[in-house]
Specification:
about 210 residues, mainly alpha, 8 helices, about 60% helix
Length: about 210
């Protein structure tokens, strides 16, 4: 067998002539490349997202405004409206319907020196609670990292303010002593339930991260 280019004898089956390097045979088929797994570091350098074990564990844990968080969410939506309605229809009405003068004017039948401080305290208490609750709701529904701390502060503030209200009320003999006890007990019960929940809940930890 001869090379068609230089007429030099060649061995049958070779691809190139050993003298002029002209191609004298069909090209050999290329060997297929074996797919190998890409190491995690190489995948990360190429821009691929490689979930870490901690991220995988976090994805498996509960998150989002669901589960038991639905109950505080409902309370944050409803309680400001209820308290605001009480402020308008009860506390502000005291200053416009003559009761303020009857209760705080010395010499009147219903007068007591603690009526004035009690009425002003309750007005400020409820107005401040509305504002604080609205702020906590904004942080809660936007999933801010400070939301759990605000919720804990809100539950504690309710207990402290209700105790202060009870102490002022107890100084007025004409007021029924057990009148405000259900609200104080309810505030204390809510604090005992929800403060530990916001401290240890995995859902809370995974939800409020912004």
């Amino acid at each position: 067998m001869q090379c068609p280019s230089c007429r030099n004898p060649i061995t049958p089956g070779v691809e190139f002539c050993p003298v002029c390097l002209a191609q004298v045979g069909p090209p050999r088929p290329s060997e297929p490349l074996l797919a190998e797994p890409v190491p995690a570091g190489a995948a990360a350098s190429l821009g691929a997202e490689v979930p870490l074990p901690a991220q995988q564990a976090a994805n498996a844990e509960p998150s989002g405004l669901g589960g038991w968080l639905i109950l505080p969410a409902i309370s944050l939506c409803i309680s400001p409206l209820i308290i605001l309605w009480q402020v308008v229809t009860m506390h502000l009405a005291v200053f416009t319907d003559g009761r303020w003068e009857a209760l705080t004017t010395e010499g009147s039948a219903a007068y007591h020196p603690m009526w004035g401080p009690l009425l002003i305290y309750e007005l400020l208490l409820n107005s401040g609670t509305v504002i604080f609750t609205v702020v906590a709701a904004v942080f809660f529904f936007t999933r801010r990292a400070a939301a759990p701390k605000l919720m804990i502060a809100l539950y504690l503030a309710r207990v402290v303010l209700m105790v202060g209200d009870q102490l002022l009320t107890a100084s007025i003999p004409a007021v029924e002593k057990a009148e405000g006890m259900p609200e104080a007990l309810r505030a204390a019960f809510q604090a005992c339930v929800w403060i530990p929940y916001f401290l240890v809940s995995k859902r809370v930890k995974n939800t409020f991260v912004r």
